[in-house]
Each structure stands twice: as C-alpha cells, then as structure tokens.
C-alpha cells in the first residue's frame, strides 16, 4: 500500500502531480475524505511549509491552510515578515482523517503507515518545487520529513538535514497554538513567529 503506483510518468511536472494525486488510493483515507488536498504555491519558492494533514475546511475547499489554523499561520507569517504568496504550502498527508462527533468531523492523527503511504507525494513536491528550505509544522510533518525518531522539541531553530539534503526547520503546528489558552497560547504563538523568522533569515 502506498502512493508510488499513482505517481505520473513525468513526476517533474507539478500540475501533472496534482492531477495524479486526485486519483490516489494508496491508503484508505481517501474513502472518507471529500478530495485530495495537494500543495499550493509556485515552483522555485524559497520556503516550503509542510503541515500534518488537511482539516475540515481544507477538505471541503481543496486547498491547504484555509481553516482556523491557516488564519493563525497567516498572522504568524505576517509578524515574521514573510509573504504567504511567495511560499509553497502542503501537508504530509493529503487526505483528511477524521472521526464523527455530534455532527462534526474531528481531526484524527494519521498513523505511521498512512504517513509512509503518502510520503511519495511529499517527496515529489520537494523535488519539483526545489525550495531552499523546508519548515516542518508539528510532529507529524517533521517525522514524515526526518524519520519517526525525530523530536521536535529538541531541534527548534536548528537546520536539520532532510530529504535530498534539503535543510529543515522544525516548529509547532498552528493548530497546537489554537488548542492552548491564555499565556500559554501567547508564548506558543510568539515561538512560532520566532521559528518562522529564523527560517526566513536562513534563506535570505
């Protein structure tokens, strides 16, 4: 089980990758998702940001980071002096994994097997976009990039060698900030901004 057999003949064409990903059946997550949510942005973007998976709103709209976590990420990017329009945004897993709860669809963390099944899409995006640096947002994204033994808390504001030798900067996911309250949320948000500023400075 995995995405390899669904990759297009020309894996160097971003639009061909996007179209091929819409038919991916490399794991079972496609069954409950509305659609594949592929990355958005331009080839050659200096920074490529990787999250965990689409959320409810991303699943419905077909674009990454358009829900509450995306709104918070926009705020953090703005404070860090980074133009979202010049980034490539994607997720480690391309389908929304969820469980029903009182009429709502609640996020459920993808398993290691599901992350592994989807990883060929992420690696293909990295090859085609060819960023100068990758930012891993949250533990799931960082482990998809750097291996299951990677611990985000031990490596913030460090440049870590990722796939193909690409440098990776690890930080928390915006959704983790949203789950906090009061002073904890404020500190977590400031930490996210500082990590993003570090990543931007590293490629300037």
What does this structure look like?
This protein has 204 residues and is an alpha/beta fold. The chain has helices at 14-21, 56-61, 68-80, 112-129, 139-146, 174-178, 182-202; strands at 40-41, 47-51, 88-91, 98-101, 104-107, 133-137, 160-161, 167-171. The strands form two sheets. It has a six-stranded mixed β-sheet, sandwiched between helices. A two-stranded antiparallel sheet has the order 4-5. It has a single domain (4-202), classed as Uracil-DNA glycosylase-like domain (Uracil-DNA Glycosylase, subunit E). Strand 4 (98-101) and strand 5 (104-107) form a beta hairpin. It contains seven helices and eight strands, in the order αββααβββαβαββαα. The mean pLDDT is 96.
Brief descriptors of the model:
alpha/beta; two-stranded antiparallel ribbon; 204 residues; globular; 7 helices; Uracil-DNA Glycosylase, subunit E; 39% helix
Q: Return the CATH architecture.
A: 3-Layer(aba) Sandwich
What integer is the average pLDDT? 96
What is the rounded distance between the termini?
Answer: 40 Å
The biggest sheet, with number of strands, parallel, antiparallel or mixed sense and barrel status, is: 6 strands, mixed
Structure class: alpha/beta
Q: Can you tell me the CATH topology?
A: Uracil-DNA Glycosylase, subunit E
Q: SSE order in H/E notation?
A: HEEHHEEEHEHEEHH
Low-pLDDT residue spans: none
Q: What percent strand?
A: 15-25%
Total number of helices = 7
The CATH superfamily appears as Uracil-DNA glycosylase-like domain
Sheet with most strands: strand arrangement: 1-3-2-6-8-7
CATH level 1 class label = Alpha Beta
- Overall structural domain count: 1
Cα-atom Rg, whole angstroms? Answer: 16 Å
């Amino acid at each position: 089980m995995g995405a390899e057999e669904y990759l297009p003949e020309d894996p160097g064409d971003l639009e061909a990758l996007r179209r091929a990903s819409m038919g991916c059946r490399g794991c079972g997550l496609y069954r409950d998702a509305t659609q594949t949510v592929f990355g958005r942005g331009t080839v050659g973007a200096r920074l490529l940001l990787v999250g965990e998976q689409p959320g409810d709103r991303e699943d419905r709209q077909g674009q990454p980071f358009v829900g509450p976590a995306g709104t918070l990420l926009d705020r953090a990017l703005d404070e860090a002096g980074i133009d979202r329009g010049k980034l490539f945004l994607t997720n480690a897993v391309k389908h929304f994994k969820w469980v029903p709860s009182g009429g709502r669809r609640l996020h459920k963390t993808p398993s290691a097997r599901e992350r592994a099944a989807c990883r060929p899409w992420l690696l293909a995006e990295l090859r085609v976009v060819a960023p100068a640096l990758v930012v891993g947002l949250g533990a799931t994204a960082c482990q998809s990039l750097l291996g299951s033994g990677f611990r985000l808390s031990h490596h913030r504001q460090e440049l870590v060698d990722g796939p193909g030798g690409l440098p990776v900067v690890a930080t928390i996911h915006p959704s983790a900030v949203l789950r906090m309250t009061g002073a904890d949320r404020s500190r977590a948000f400031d930490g996210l901004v500082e990590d993003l500023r570090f990543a931007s400075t590293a490629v300037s």
